[in-house]
Amino acid sequence: MNTLNTYAPTGTSNEEEEIVEAIAGLFIQPRLEYDSSRFCKLATWHHVSPAVTLVKLKTALFYVTQTCSLYTSSCMLKLDRQLIELVTTQGLKHQSQPQPLSISSQLALSDLPQDTRTVIRNLSIDPDLEYLVCCPDCFAMYPETSATPNRCSHRLLPKEKKSSNPDETDDSVDNGPMLCGAELFRHSGATRSPIRKFAYQNLVHWLARLFCRKDIEEALEETAIKSRSPYDSSAEMFDIQDSQTWREFRGADGNQFTSDSGNVVFGMFMDGINPYGNRQAGKHVSVTFIVMICLSLPVSLRYRPENIFLVGIAPGPKEPSLEQTNWILGPVVEQLKSVWYPGMKLSKTPLHPQGRSISAALLPFFADLPALRRSLGFASHAATRMCSCCLLPKSDISNINEESWPPRTLDQHKFWAKKSYEAESLDERDEILLEHGVRYSVLLELPYWDILKFHVVDAMHNLLLGLLKWHCQRFWLMSDEDDEQAPKGVSTKELRDLIAAASSPLPHDLSSTLSQLPSTSKKGKQRLTEDTEVDQVAFRDLLLGNSSTSSDDDFVPHISSAEWGGEWVAPSEGKIIFDKTLISHVNSLLSKIRIPTWIQRAIPVLGKASFGRLKADEWRNLFTVQLPLILPSYWNDDDPACLSLLHNFAHLVSLVNLGLKRSMTAKRADDYREHVQAYIQSSLTLFPDVELAPNHHMAFHLARCLKALGPSRAWWSFSMERLMAQVLKSTGNNQLGQMEITYQKTFGRISNLRSMLESGSFPPSLDPVIRQIKALYDPIPAVPRTRLNEPTRPLSEKLFKQLIIRLNERFPLATHKWLESDKWVALSSAESPNFAPVNSRAEHVKNIHVDDVIFSTISSNESNCAIALKPHSPLKYGLIHSIFKHTRRAPGLLNSITDTWVVVHPLVPIPTVNDPYKGFDKYHMTVALRRINNLVDYIIPFSDILAHCAWLRYPAGTVHQTINYETIALVCIDR
Question: From what superkingdom does this record's organism come (predicted)?
Fold first, then answer.
């Protein structure tokens, strides 16, 4: 039975059943054979005139990527045609005699269309889209045929189940299903056009096109070979392809699915976005993207537009509800079912000219919390069953003992999902949702898909936009209330009344009333939640201060950061942690922090208008780079409450750093879980009046995802949200109902055009042109300007001696020793064969580029000069003083060896007694306080550098009165 039949409501009319069956006929059915030869032919351009090919590419490029209108691009096309004809007949000399077009030139020009749409068709860059009529009210889908009714005939469930007892039946109330009845078409005379349409891409067609690219087939083969290695729980995972889930995923035949290069694995992302952005007031609309990422491709190819499958963009102006989401997921689920088993056979591919069988499967589903719950049929994060991974009720959100959480099971989930689908009323469905947190999802139709294992906690939303933002706004009570307009002045009469009221005793009835107000200090009583006007409380205390004062009972003995014993001491009740004074102090230092230039979105000022609108990257940089350099020295007064706040903060930074690591191990996942446990446990003690958010609970479940699926970068929303923003900029169409299809079509054209340009199948004469065209979307890397025969100069005697020592330590020879060339010359003929001479001349440079990362000398760029070194190095931190390239030749080798070396000024530890940063060595925060040793130059090979550091200078006496010399606080950015 077709999927749409499965989730069509019970009591469906015959007419609606016919419509559902008609829609089913539009879906891709399992195919054993697919003629892919036409895609292989697209890779051949040698039979076409290079000039004609260039004009076609230029026309398509400007029309598709530069939002050039159809009229303008067609005019340019005609002008280009006339230009070719003019040059062919008259040449480039101004006095050339016109010559008639040759037969071959006429044939070549006949291949050049006069309309842009014909060019698009000739290049075959249009995506293969299927269209459905979409109900503007309930999202029900219909085929666009003459049989489709004018009004939506989808039956909606009644609120209450109709009673079977005739004595309880009210004839005046019809509790049976009712029709949606929304208009589906606009009418203009005898013609009609859909009010709203939904376009989805043909997966089989897209896969055939993908496999007909030689570079893709080669990349998939490499992935398959790598995936055949058994899973090693002790190994480091750099991608989902290294994970246990990947290595142990079985196909329909029971064999490892990922070990065959013909089997591809996808991840699915779904989210809504305002196509008008946040700048246009009044346009609060949303369109919903459904995107699939081919995880079988290496990361270097995975996120290129030509390798991303944009399933569809559900039309606005509102996002679909839980049940309505099934309508837009139905088409892709049907396609996924057909390509899973029995799969399909392509007639021809570059590496398999006789054809090959291919299959596809879906593994992780990732989105932010609201989109994920809506897409998969789980209850909202604000519901009783707030969690999609377990059944812990929201009332027990402070329970952080994972072993006590009631687990979800797949069998029970499917059972209640089926019950929800079979429900005869909305009340019955809502009751199931309340008790079990389940609604029916069409993704359950995939026979292999485990909805509990394969949906993930999105690290970007959970950690950066969830925990960090909550910590700032709710735990630290930081707000931007100062940005509000100043209140109006108080009149003299009002001021006198206030003074009189303040000097009068509190009325007895008011005292009793105040005593009955709900407390906010203990569990079970009223707490600050998301709906509480916490910013008003913060602003009040900023103006009036806190009335509580310390007493002898609050005294705690002197404790240093390094000696903190682990006892959590809460701040005084109602205290604003991030008050106006601290914000001012932070802002005074933010501009002084030297942050590597490859770090984007490091905020220059905290608070004011920017606060509350920080991007995920900005939250990350604030908490993991900027604040770790500032807070330890600010909260350095040995106050036990301040020390508790610092260590609570350190646990938060540690779990974020671990959760977002580019690589993952079982040990790191366990460390992440420990820091989550410690952070939330300490937060319950330090901030007893602030209730935890669902994101705190979900952070525990993220540990399971890290262990099962590897580093979060393979399944987080960062890249997908950037993709959505790029797609929305690809066209000028801003009319709802049309823009979604225009976005989809334009993205498909751009993707196919890019893959064509990357094919390398154009005539050699077009190579310079192709490089220039590709530079529009993939800029050509700038080549540093270097003079020919770059002058070199000798190293100082001191550095040269160090270099010889390092060469013999790091690059020893089997039968020789490296030796200064001037000393080698002085050796006897019997001694010299035992040594290899080394010249002292070196080429000095200011910067070294590694992809987008630049390492610089301190005189060239202070932001890029601080480095952390690998564990085997005798130094831990340093500032780059100079960089040089040195060339040597080993005995018996014809080719010389060139290495890059770095001269650093060591950053040495300071006495730990008064070092406020020393107590955080056990955390994954990698922050330290050091002193520059400018008297020592230490040479290391460039390969010894582990990562950049951000750093901040502290003048003498500013960190602690006993530290009477300049120090540097630094944080290692090893991601």
Answer: Eukaryota
